[in-house]
Every structure is written in C-alpha cells, then in structure tokens.
User: Fold these one by one.
Assistant:
Number 1:
Amino acid sequence: MFKINELKENDFSIVELSNASKTSIAKICLNEGARVVGLQLNGKIIIEEQANFEYKNSYASAILFPFAGRVEKGAYSFKFDDYQLDCNDHNNAIHGLVYDKVFEIFEPEEHQNNCSVTFNYYEKKPLAGFPFNYFLSITYTLFETHLNTRVTVKNIDSKAFPFTLGWHPYFKSSNLNESSLALSSTQKAVYNANMVAQKLEESVFEGEIELKDHQLDDCFILKNDYVVLKTPDYNLKISADAKKNYYQVFTPEKLPLIAIEPLTGVSNNLNNKIGLQVLEPDATYVQNWDLKLVD
C-alpha cells in the first residue's frame, strides 16, 4: 500500500509519498511552489538536494509559470499593452512567478499500486508585470518505477493572458563522466551573450550526448516527446505530452547533476513568441510530465 505523510523539515512543510517498503519516495515542499525536493524510484536516487546549491539560485524542480527561462530586461508587450516584470536575474526576469508561492494540499489518494496528491494555488492579487488572475494545480502521482506530474492552469480572469509552462528538475548521477543523454532533435535555440533566446536554428541530432565531453546549456526542440538520461545507476525516460516539446538541458559546474527541463516554449518567448501560448478567460491548459525508470 502506498502512503502519504505530512512532515516538517527545517521549518518547511513537506508531503511525502512512498510505497510500503520505502524504496520509492517523493518529497514535495509546499512552501516553495510545491516542488520536488527528493525522489527515489525503486531504490535509485533520482533527485536529491545538494549542499551549497541554494534553491534561490538553482530553482531545482521548480514549476515554471507564466514564463520559463529569461525574459529580456523583464519587459514584454501583449495585445498592445506594455508590461514590466521584476528582474531577479541581473537585468532579466527568470523562471516565472510561482516558484516561491505557498500551495495548499487537496485530495490526497492512497492506493495499492500508487498514491497521489494535488497542490493548489490561486493568484488573486497579481503583480503589475503579469496583472492576471489564474489558478494553478499540480498533481504528483507516485508509482514503483515512475512519477507523473500533471499541471493544470485555468484562467480565472476576464482577460486572456500569454504563458509558457515548464519544469526545472535536476537529476543526480553518481558519475557524470559515465552518463549520457539520448535524444532526437530538429532545432536548437540561439542565444545572445546574456543567454536570452533569440531564434531557432536547424540542428538535426539523433543519438547520445556523452556528458563527460560537454558543458551544456542548450534548448533542444525534439522530434518526439522524450529524452533518456543514462547513468551508471539508472536509465530515466523524461517525457512530456505537449504538442511541441522544448527541452532545456543544463549541467552546473562541479556538481553531480544535470537539469533536464521540459518546456512548452523557449526562454524569452513573451518577446520572441517561440512556443508562446495564450489562455482565454475560463479556459484550461493541462500538461503532463513523466519520469520513468527504463532498461
């Protein structure tokens, strides 16, 4: 039987999902945007907090909404109106507005083969830089060998708004020099000197990127809906069900981690419009991401 427990860790409210033998565990932090702070699948450590890698700098496992990556100078226009976001990355805004929000628990469910919890956030006092009311719901479902994340966005405003949705998990490898990332892509994002995406370029690739040979900070536009991370301890399929899938891949220096971020559009798409979506009043958008152990 899978179980759900509420814990306190370092003054943070944590919800723990686990199987009976504790070989599969997911820990969710309510105080930090309902992010995954720990994940173990079938005894394999997939996501683990790192010393000297603070969340305010890493955004580890943050849900990214209403934008992902950087918005250049925090400025954008929508339907002939100009908006200014707060800049939290030097001269740019980065990674959305919900990564530090407090979420509420809703509908925990325990079953023989899985358990799930939904976390809700209502934005009813929006910022000037994104003056729209919205509802965001995140459901995590833990199985023995995989974790499903479902995000639902509803526009509860009287006006349409633009958005991008993403997720920022870092995956642990016991040896990045013996790890690789298998993917099939058609294009990559082109960045300026400030790592702000400008456009797409053709970049056909099909195979494995050996991580020992690369310092990655790239956005791949995939032919399909998944990539596979291969490490000495596990192989993990990271999949999404968006109509078009953009994956940002980043390897921080001197850490046993790789960020693999499924996105619905590239960074700065409030300006470059690449993958940007618009949600009309009362409309809902649903996105699923899945992490699954594979052979």
Number 2:
Amino acid sequence: MTITAVIMAGGKGERFWPKSRTHLPKQFLNISGNKSMIQQTIARLENLIDISQIFIVTNELYAELIRAQIPHLPHDNIIIEPIGRNTAPCVGLASILIEEKFPHSTMVVLPSDHIIENEEGFIRILKTAVEVAQEDSHLVTLGIQPTYPETGYGYIESTKEINKVNDLDVHKVNKFVEKPNLETAEGYLSSGNYFWNSGIFIWKTAVIRKYIKELMPEMHDVLETMKAAFGTDQKRNVINSEFHKMPDQSIDYGIMEKVNNIYVIPCIFGWDDVGSWTALDRINDRDGNGNVIKGNILNIDTKRCIIESNGKLIATLGIEDLIIVDTEDVTLICTKDKAQEVKLLLKELRTQKLEHYL
C-alpha cells in the first residue's frame, strides 16, 4: 500500500513573535540547525516516503516560500487553503486530493514545525504505526512520553490494553484530554499512562474519509461537492468557493475524541513542538549561567535568560529569567513565565492598528 504524508504548514507561529511574522512564520525559520523547520520535516520523511507522495497544506501567502525552500516538491503537491479552517478541513481536503492521485493509500498527517532529534527512531516508529493503521480500520497516533508536567500540551490517556508490534508497545487509547492545570499535569506524569499529544496521526485515507462521513457529515457533503468537480476546469474554483463552508474545527475534536478504535505508540525520540520561546531552553545548549545566547550579546550576572540579537549589541546586567529578542523593527522583552502569552501583544497590536509589526 502506498504511504503518503500531509504536512500542515499554514500556521503563523504567533508565540514565536517577533521572529516569526505573518510573511515569514516559524516553520520557515532556522530555529535549530542549518535548515528551516519545514525543510527538516521534509528531509526526515524522505527516509520513508518519496517526495512525489508528500503533500503540504498551506495558504496562498506561503506557497512561494515552500517552492523556494523545497524546490524538488512537485508543485501540484502544494495544497492551497483559501482560508484557515483548523485541522479537520485541512485533513479532509488533503484526503480527497490524495485519493484522486494515490487511491488506497495510508496517510501520515503531521505538523511542519516540530523538532525530532532521533530521526532513525522516528522512522522506525512511523513504519510500525503505518503497519498498525493498515490493519482493519485503526486510527493511530504517536504519543510522546512526558518528562515533566507540561501544561501547554494536550494529553492522550491509554488503557491497559497493550499489544506488541515490531517490539514496540501499542496502546489502545481511552481518551484525548485538553491542556491540564499544573496539578492535573503532575498527576498525569505520575500515572504512567498519559502521553503528550504530538499531533501526528496515521490512517488509511479511506478510513478517515469514512469517519468524516459518519461524524462530520456537513464537511463530508462539502468534500463531495468538491470531488464532483475533479477532472473539470472548475476544480480549483469549486474548491475555493466550497472551502469557506467548512467548519472551523480540529481533527481531534471532530474525529479523534469520538472514535473507539484508536491506538497510540509511546515515543521517545527527542521531540519538541517548539511552541514558544522557552522551547529554546530545551533544544539548545546553555552557558554556565543557564542562558541561551545567540548573536551579539554582552552579559554580566545574567541567569537563565534567552537572548537573541539581530546584530545590534545587547548588553545585560543583573537580570534573570527573561526573554529578549531583537529584530530589525521590534524588540521583545518578557519574563519566561509569560512566554505562552505573547499572543496578547499581537492582539494589542491589532487593536492599535499596528498590523505592520505582525
């Protein structure tokens, strides 16, 4: 059976502002290493899936960035969403386009902006996930073994039903749970049967289409209207007009939280979703005072800070637990415990009609 991949790359990476901007969001930046995050994602997948079978879902604004950064990706494999509508419509649209080109395939769905250090381990687990997904009508997800009580991730609770496939544990999923508070997250960590939701899913294309029809019938009807235009010169126009009718809903809420035959494979392969600036603490080396430093920096008595310069000298004295990011037109200064709330600044910029800083 053919294996295809769907990379979701339409996000703006707002919690990585001011480095991540509307015109150049996080997935197109070199956050770690000498390649952008989407280039790393493509290179990782090519160890298992041919580039002709890898698709990227994005919007018109980023199509040229993708063509520039991944020139060997077939142009037809860039799926343009006319408007952002969350992950369920993204998966739905990709599924019908993949069905047209690669019928009877198995889809791997994943974000464009995650870091995975052990790529060999990732591919080994992905092969097993594909094998499990190809058995009957199973939906499979990769769960990250939690190492601390993270409150910024959703979690997956597994049951005691565990199978061995290729020497890997494959757990039956009990339920998906939302981002917890700290006390709840600590309980999840100690229980041993909760995993971070990686947002990586594996299923047969026909199976996810079946569940969309059953659980999201309105979206199914929209997709069928789109399919009716396939093979005509109206295909793109119909997709563009019909897509606006799609629900703004996640695949987790629309499908995964309502299905019983879901399996999770626990993973330890150096994963990070790089969701905010504090991720740099986890994925970069720190100096003797716990600082992550990049660029032209002079620091004295500075501890546990993340500081990034765009060329201008940043001099610090006697500060702790701050994030300082200097770009050509914006300097961000915030405490680490507010890193998840950077979006509030963007909201205020819009309120004050300062959108040119976005």
Number 3:
Amino acid sequence: MISLSLLVLAAWPFGLALARPAPPLSPHLVVAGVPQYVLDYGMWQIDERPKASMLMLTSNNAAPLVYMDTKEVYFPSDLGAQVANTHPDINLTELPNPPSPLVLENLDALNAVGNGGKDVYLTSNIDVTTSPSWLEGVAPDSTGKTNQATSAAVITTDHGSGLVDAFYMYFYAYNQGNTVLGQELGDHIGDWEHNMVRFQDGVPQTVWYSQHSNGQAFTYKAVEKLGIRPVAYSARGSHANYAITGKHDHTIPDVNLPDGLLVDNTSKGLLWDPTLSSFFYNFHPADSTFESINGSPVQAMNFKGKWGDQQYAKDDKRQPPPFFGFYKYVGGPTGPYDKQLNRSKVCPDNGILCIVRDKLGP
C-alpha cells in the first residue's frame, strides 16, 4: 500500500471472532545428513516434506506463523489464480499477443516488452468494483494451510560465512487500503508482504516485518513465538505485518503509535502457516538469479512487472475523486525480486534508520 503520511499530517489537527488454536508442533526429530538446527527450528511437519526439500529447509528453520485479523475478508491467494484471472496491460492497454495461456511457468516472457517488463500490469479480467470472488483468497484451515492455493514463496539468500537470510513472501490477491476521514484510500489488486529472518550459523538473530513503505525489525529473542517459530500479525485488509496485536498508526515510518488517523488493525484470528503451501527458491546475490527448488516456477520470480492493475485514471468511472491528492485505487505491486533480497542489514536500504528493537511494542 502507498504511504499516506503527507495527507495524515495535513489533516491531523481536524480530526470478535475466536481464534483457532495453534496446530501442535511435531516432536523432536533427528535425521542423518540434515543439520540439526534445520530440524529444531523447522520441524513442524518436516517429516511430511519431500526428501529433496531438506536442503532448502536450512532457510525454513524459524519460519513465521501469521495470524490473520478476526475481521479479515481478503485472505492469502493462489499465485496461479492471480495470473489466470488477469491479462497483461501496458499504459492501460491490453497487450496484443501475450503468451497463451499465460501461466506462472512463462510469466517472465512479459519481460520482453514494456521496459523489460517493468511497465506491464497484470490487470483483472473482471471489474474490481463488482468484488469478484477470486480476490477473497483462501482462508487457512485448522492446520494453518491454504488448501489448493500456493500463496507464499520462501526465498533464501546465503551471504557466506554462516550468514543466511530467509524471506517468507506472502501473496494476497487484494489490498484494502486504510480509511482516512471517511475515505478509503490505497486499494490495489495484488499484494506482496514479507517477513525476513536473519540467521548466523543456523541460529536466528533478527526478524523483519514489512509494513507499507517500510517496516520494523526485532531481535528473535524479543518476538512472540509459537514453540520456536516467530509470530506475525497480518493487518486487516492491508496485510502489513506487525509483531503485536492492536491498533498501529503508521503515519511516520518506524514509529507505530497506538492510534491515529492512518491505522492498521491486528488480532488473533485464523492462524496461517505459509510454509505448508509455498514455492521455494534460493537467491544468488552474485548474479541476482533465482534457483528453483522442487520444481517451483522460477519464471514467476523473474517477472519484472506488477501483480495487479495500473492506477485507474482520473476520468475512469471506477476511480472516485482524489482526496488531498490521494486515490482509492492505486497501482499493483512488484514481486519478490524487488524486495532487496541481497540486503546488508535486516532492514531494506531505503534511507530510513534501521532500528532493531529488543523489546516488543508498537
């Protein structure tokens, strides 16, 4: 979602469902040839995974568990369904001869047009204002799985010398923006959010929570956990990730106040385990390439375009008049390749101070 800080700063003077219980953790496992920390931190249902994925699970040792908000209506979504329900546009005009059918396995073919793919938008086949059902995603079941929906991508970056970053990328078909002074702003089709866990010699050190244009970092020791797995709270509609429940005013990056005008809401609703329905990849910093694990479609990670509609024009009947220069419907997001997978700090390098908190708080 876009940042609305300027709007809120200008306007400031004027202005439960029960959570499902967490699935039980698997018992302690010892598997010859698999590093023990992989099993200790990633042992949840590890015995059910294909043997070929065991090396990948060096990235999965402290995989976060995500609580959806109790009032959430836009759940994690299948990546393939996003492509199936969209078509590629450039400058609000349908691409004349796209691959047919367009699927995850050939998605990066769109990089051949539109400024290396960067000008391509995956545009909904159905008018968003009619609330097509595919935008609702798939609610996690009692085990935390989004059934028949591959709704996440786990990507590991090995920096060498025992330093490994594991990115847990979460996909939603729709982002519902915040309501400011009665105006809903920043809605868009397609939504990528993520946690990142940084490891040193197999031991989790810090956890990053993506939030709109920035996010928050905490020590692994400080964050809430189920067993040894970090917990994230996905904000209602916007899906920004937080370390605690409650209200989060995100007007100022890195400063989450308990209330305000630009507010995300989090609570303990349905519990989602992204690793149960995920693609898996290694990212190689030397040449910025992805390596597929267990047949995961690397073409989807290579796609340089946007995973939703382009911002609708002012004269588009779907677009309400702008509010202090901000719009209800904005452009869709770029994919995981654009999330600084080779970052030096646990925070992305965006000019904002990287604060690693050692205590939980807003």
Number 4:
Amino acid sequence: MNGSVVAVAASPTHSFTKPVQTSIRLIAGLGVEGDAHAGPTVMHRHARAKNPEKPNLRQVHLIAQETLKELGAQGFEVYPGAIGENITTQGIALLDLPAGTRLRIGDEAVVEITGLRSPCKLIEGFQEGLMYALLDKTPDGRVIRKAGVMGIVIEGGVIRAGDGIAVELPPAPHRRLEVV
C-alpha cells in the first residue's frame, strides 16, 4: 500500500488552521520544525493542562485528501491545512492502519502512527456541523472518528507535496487505532 503527499502545513501558533507550506522539516522525537505542536512532551493545550509531562504522541497530524473530498461533497469548505493537519495524503486508508504502522515519506522521513485524532469543539467552531460530519458509527454502535491520525517522528527529513509514502505495517497481531 503506497500513497503520496498532497500538501504540508505548519503553524508556530495554536491557531486552528495551518497554512500550507512549500515544505516542512520533520525532526525525530519532536515533530514538525516550527509547529506549535512540536515537542517531546504533549503540546496540545487541553492535554498539556492535564499532564504536561505526558509523552507527545501527537507530533504530526495526517488526514487523507479523500476525507476532505468527502466533506466537500457534504458542503463543507475544507482544504489542506484547514482542520489543523500537517500532512494531507492521498491513496492510503489512514483510518484503517493499525497502531505502530510506519510511513516512509519522501527520501528520509519516517512517521509512526500512534492513534486517532478525536474531533473536538474547535472543529465545530471552524464550521458548524463539521465535528459531527467527522464522526460516524458502525452497525454495532462503535464510534468512528474520521478527523485523521496522529504520529511521532522516528526519522527526520524534509517533505513536500508530491513525495511518495510507503506503508510498513507492524508485526501481527495488529492493534486498532485508539484516540491519543
């Protein structure tokens, strides 16, 4: 399973939308250079208030272009970086990957998927109804979160739109993604 990078985005502030960049640099153990969520410990404001020493499992946020297109078809104005993601991908079913999957991005970078991003009230504030559009349920009642996946940087490097992404699944048994 392989895909590609559609766009990359970063912001030095905790603003909701991240502006698209020509390239971003991933730094091992920290995240996206210059991004407000980079750091060895949790940088998400709500989670940091609870436990500032917790390891940062949310160094990089990825979302599939296919998800953005699905939302656009529902009438939402979304685009790369709009809901705070650092990397917009195509051709990979991100939400179906198991925890521990490694994504080799471009020539150097490796991101390990740690879990799901849970849609929050900030998404609802961005566009009314968007938070609920990013939630669904399976027939047995399990909640499906479609706001993308989170990861940590294993190997750093510069990435840009057009870079290839190679998927490396972890050894079985696979663990389903949970919210981080």
